[in-house]
Design brief:
The protein is an all-alpha fold. It contains 39 helices and 2 strands. The N and C termini lie far apart (about 195 Å).
Length: about 1000
């Protein structure tokens, strides 16, 4: 045992020794490798790992998100939208962007938005389409090559088309229609609908002549007429209003009761023919163009799907009127449809869609027989019975077979239908059937019954399908009918309601009504209201047109409405009796002010437009008519700031005239003088002379005023037919009368101071250089003053002879009588001087003749004014002239010593014009007449009556202040008192 133990110990010791040795040897190794080799391997492994990380970072593999996005796009292009939506939703929430394909995410969202829009309700369709367009544009900007993808092209084209951007959509639709792919049928269908919408809006197609037996129900409807809105430029120095209300747009509405053959083109503006929501799994009417009312073309073929082979007499078709070159477009559409229907295997749904569209195009071309043939093919392969029924109804309506149309449409409004679009379409077409039948009926009770039925269907449409395209055009139809029936409040409400369905004009889309037709309908309603004198209604409509009409168009309609309203009120005011005019004047001027504001607002909306100066000018003209001279002057200054060339002289004359109206004579005169100097050949130079003469007259500078009037009459270029020559002749005569009176009064003053002129003295009028021509000159005489009045009489007599019916005839007659009276007075003054007896007799005879001539003219003038007063009344000026004439007749009779007649004339004048200061002169003259008749008591009574009138203040103080008397109230009291004390 011991041996064994020792052996074991030895072995243990030996093992320990060997273990120590092994440990010593292993101390220089790692993992069985030498240290250096182990470290080298670890370094290489780390480098490889680092390199792998760098490569992964620089060249990453496709991520899970990118894979999901690619799969979602593939599903969208294949039509699996629910699966695609599940993949896209988390990517959208995380705002994932694929670096490999930066436009793919936006592309997917655009496709998804387009599909959602197609399946949306009306209120959500347009916003989603707009969003889809934005995403598709974003995808194109990130990846330009994506525009070559047919799926992108189709989504973009259809979205643009449905939002109304047909001009931008058309190139994409044309491109897709030429490429054989799954989108080709839908693109061709939509392109046809687009062209049909343009044709239906712009085409004028008269109906076919009807047989004699049916003439009462097929009268031709009025053709549309494009008429450019006139803009009359009335640039002159006086207010001028030659503007007629704009008459632009189609006449799209006919009275339902009128015996005319209505059509959708003219009666309602229908027929945009937009295609909606086409897909292999869904048919919704295939975008019927709804060309409701073509002329009856009759002919062979099946009637409304009943298989009736009855042969009907086919009247001769009218020529196709195509002013907008739409015929080539439609013929091209027919070729596209034929190629697609013949050369490609189509699904039953697509075939039905294209056959119905072919019938649409043929109906628009009024090729009814071919349209029936296309309909027969559609009947044989129809997968959309509701859509086929609508097209059958449209075919029947085109043939004026409204009963057949209603048979097809009525079932669509009953019970639940798979496509609500068909229901709304059927309701609308049923309403159109009733309204168009009412137009053809001759019996009034039938007309009213059918119209009521049509209105009931339209109301049902508005209640059940509010906000739909059919509801919008239905509102316009109802508005037209209410307008024609005189229910303007309801009509305005419906028109405005239809416009307010448009949130943004760029998003507007209606398969029944294009923007152009919509605008024409409203413009036509506005025009008819203006022409009918319903300006408040027209203005309310014009102000509610945005956004369908832009700011400039709206402002122009408002300006034309207010102008027409003001012109009408002005005409009515001018025809009123003078006694009724004062209360109406403020109202008329208010209308002109409103027109001036409207034209100024129009000017502001097109400030960068070439018509901006014209609008300012119109605003200025209307401000002048409103007597708002301050505003008119501001507008003229703004007009001058545009630096006009042709109108500069005219504008300066107007500016000076407005300054004169504002009593700024010192500023106006230099402007008028500069016009004469700088524009001597311009017609406005003569207007400047007229204004300048008036300015000098108002300043009291009669000599310079006379110079201007004489220069106009001496002009070699003006004729007596010119308004300036006419006015100059009258004004010169009136000025000479006033100037002669001033010279006589000045001479009387000098005579009162002991320096009166003798008959031998003369006045050298032509050599007078003083600022005030009436200033007395030592070498002055009565004969020279008479010469002034003689010329005045000559000028006024010439005026009356040349212009017998001139509005200023009354003024000329009165001034002529004054001049003759002044001449007689001058002779009486001359007779006070020592003269030979023969000279006195001759002068006395002349005096009597002049007094009698003055009296005759005054009596004639009084009779003329009294007749005018009884017929139309007198204006303020003529009323004042009549009052002066009444007293002047008494004065002339007194001068002729016809005392009894003078007293009678004075009494008549006093009784009629008791508040006139001339009453006091009349009492004084009557007192003298009684004295000459030897009746001193009556004479004293006349003086006392005058004093009583003064004491009781029967004559207002304002009458004395307004130069109605040469003496003040106090001076009259002193004068009458003095006369009484002298024994009168």
């Amino acid at each position: 045992m011991a041996t064994h133990s020792s052996t074991a110990d030895a072995h243990g010791q030996h093992g320990k020794k060997e273990g120590h040795e092994q440990s010593a040897k292993s101390a220089g190794k790692i993992l069985g490798l030498p240290k250096r080799l182990a470290f080298l391997g670890a370094g290489l492994s780390g480098g490889i790992l680092l390199l792998a990380l760098v490569c992964w970072w620089l060249f990453p593999g496709e991520s899970t998100e990118a894979i999901h996005l690619a799969n979602a796009v593939k599903l969208l292009e294949e039509g699996h939208f629910e699966e695609a939506t599940e993949l896209l939703q988390p990517l959208i929430e995380s705002q994932f962007l694929d670096a490999e394909a930066p436009g793919r995410m936006a592309y997917a969202q655009g496709l998804l938005g387009y599909q959602e829009a197609r399946n949306s309700e009306k209120e959500m369709e347009l916003p989603r389409l707009a969003s889809a367009i934005a995403f598709l544009r974003d995808a194109q900007s990130r990846e330009p090559e994506i525009r070559k993808n047919p799926t992108w092209q189709n989504a973009m084209a259809q979205s643009l088309y449905r939002t109304g951007a047909i001009e931008e959509a058309r190139p994409w639709l044309v491109q897709l229609s030429t490429i054989e792919n799954s989108f080709q049928p839908q693109s061709v269908d939509t392109l046809c609908a687009l062209d049909l919408s343009l044709v239906d809006i712009n085409r004028v197609a008269p109906p076919a002549p009807a047989p004699a037996a049916e003439a009462h129900s097929s009268q031709p409807h009025a053709a549309d007429a494009h008429s450019k809105e006139p803009h009359a430029d009335s640039h002159d120095s006086e207010k001028s209003h030659s503007h007629e209300p704009a008459a632009a747009g189609h006449s799209n509405a006919h009275p339902p009761a009128a015996k005319t053959k209505p059509s959708s083109d003219h009666g309602t503006g229908h027929g945009t023919g937009h295609s909606d929501k086409h897909s292999p799994n869904e048919a919704d009417g295939h975008g019927h163009s709804q060309h409701d009312g073509h002329s009856d073309s009759g002919g062979h073929g099946h009637s409304a799907g009943h298989g009736d082979d009855t042969v009907e007499a086919e009247p001769e078709e009218p020529p196709f009127i195509d002013p907008y070159a739409s015929l080539p477009m439609l013929e091209g559409d027919l070729k596209r449809l034929a190629n697609l229907l013949e050369g490609q295997k189509l699904s039953p749904e697509d075939r039905t869609m294209l056959l119905l569209r072919r019938a649409d195009v043929l109906l628009a071309l009024e090729r009814t027989l071919e349209a029936e043939a296309a309909m027969q093919l559609a009947r044989n392969s129809s997968t959309d019975p509701d859509g086929l029924a609508i097209q059958e109804a449209r075919l029947a309506m085109a043939k004026r077979k409204f009963a057949d149309a209603e048979k097809h449409l009525l079932p669509l409004t009953e019970g639940k239908r798979p496509n609500l679009r068909h229901v709304s379409t059927a309701l609308y077409l049923l309403a159109r059937c009733a309204l168009e039948q009412s137009s053809a009926e001759s019996a009034l009770n039938e007309q009213l019954a059918l119209r009521g039925q049509g209105m009931k269907r339209l109301r049902d449409l508005l209640v059940r399908f509010v906000g739909t395209e059919e509801a919008v055009v239905g509102m316009l139809d109802m508005a037209d009918i209410h307008r024609l029936e005189g229910n303007t409040e309801r009509a305005i409400e419906l028109y405005i309601g239809a416009v307010r369905t448009i949130v943004r004009l760029e998003d507007y889309h209606n398969r029944w009504l294009s923007q152009t037709a919509f605008r024409d309908r409203l413009r036509n309603a506005w025009k008819l209201w203006v022409e009918g004198g319903k300006y408040a209604e027209a203005l309310a409509l014009a102000e509610s047109l945005p956004p369908l009409f832009d700011r400039v168009e709206t402002a122009e309609l408002v300006a034309n409405t207010t102008r027409a309203w003001a012109m009408t009120q002005q005409e009515e005011y001018d025809q009123l009796p003078e006694s009724l005019k004062p209360p109406k004047l403020a109202q008329v001027r208010s209308r002109w002010k409103a027109s001036a504001r409207a034209w100024y607002q129009l000017a502001q909306t097109r400030k960068m437009n070439f018509r901006y100066p014209d609008d300012l000018w119109e605003s200025s003209s209307d401000s002048i008519a409103a007597a708002d001279y301050k505003s008119a002057l501001e507008r003229v200054d703004e007009y001058l700031a545009t630096l006009p060339r042709e109108m500069l002289a005219t504008a300066l004359v107007r500016k000076a005239g407005l300054m004169m109206d504002l009593d700024r004579l010192d500023e106006a005169i230099p402007i008028l003088e500069s016009v004469q100097q700088k524009f001597p050949s311009d017609p406005s130079s003569y207007k400047a002379q007229v204004r300048l003469a008036k300015a000098f007259t108002e300043k009291g500078d009669l000599f310079r005023a006379e110079t201007q009037w004489r220069a106009i009459l001496a002009s070699e270029t003006l004729t007596p037919e010119a308004s300036e020559w006419n006015e100059a002749l009258l004004k010169l005569g009136c000025l000479l009368v006033d100037r002669g009176i001033l010279l006589r009064q000045e001479a009387d003053k000098k005579g009162a101071k002991g320096n009166s002129p003798t008959p031998a003295q003369t006045v050298s009028v032509s050599s007078n250089t003083s600022d005030f021509p009436g200033t007395y000159i030592p070498d002055a005489g009565i004969d020279s003053i008479r010469a002034v009045q003689i010329e005045a009489s000559s000028r006024l007599t010439e005026f009356l002879a040349r212009y017998p019916n001139d509005p200023s005839e009354v003024q000329a007659m009165y001034q002529l009588a004054r001049s003759q009276r002044e001449q007689a007075r001058l002779i009486r003054n001359a007779l006070k001087s020592p003269l030979a007896e023969a000279v006195k007799l001759r002068l006395a005879e002349q005096q009597k003749i002049l007094d009698e001539q003055s009296l005759d003219n005054l009596v004639k003038l009084r009779d003329t004014l009294n007749k005018q007063a009884n017929q139309t009344g007198l204006n303020t000026l003529h009323e004042a002239i009549l009052a002066n004439t009444a007293f002047d007749i008494g004065h002339q009779l007194f001068e002729l010593r016809r005392d009894r007649d003078a007293i009678m004339a004075y009494n008549t004048a006093i009784n009629r014009y008791r508040n006139n200061p001339q009453v006091l002169s009349a009492f004084l003259q009557m007192a003298e007449a009684y004295r000459r008749m030897g009746k001193p008591a009556e004479a004293r009574s006349m003086l006392e009556q005058g004093r009583v009138i003064l004491r009781q203040k029967q004559i207002p103080d304002s009458a004395f202040d307004n130069l109605g008397s040469s003496l003040t109230r106090e001076e009259w009291e002193l004068w009458l008192e003095k006369i009484s004390q002298l024994g009168h």
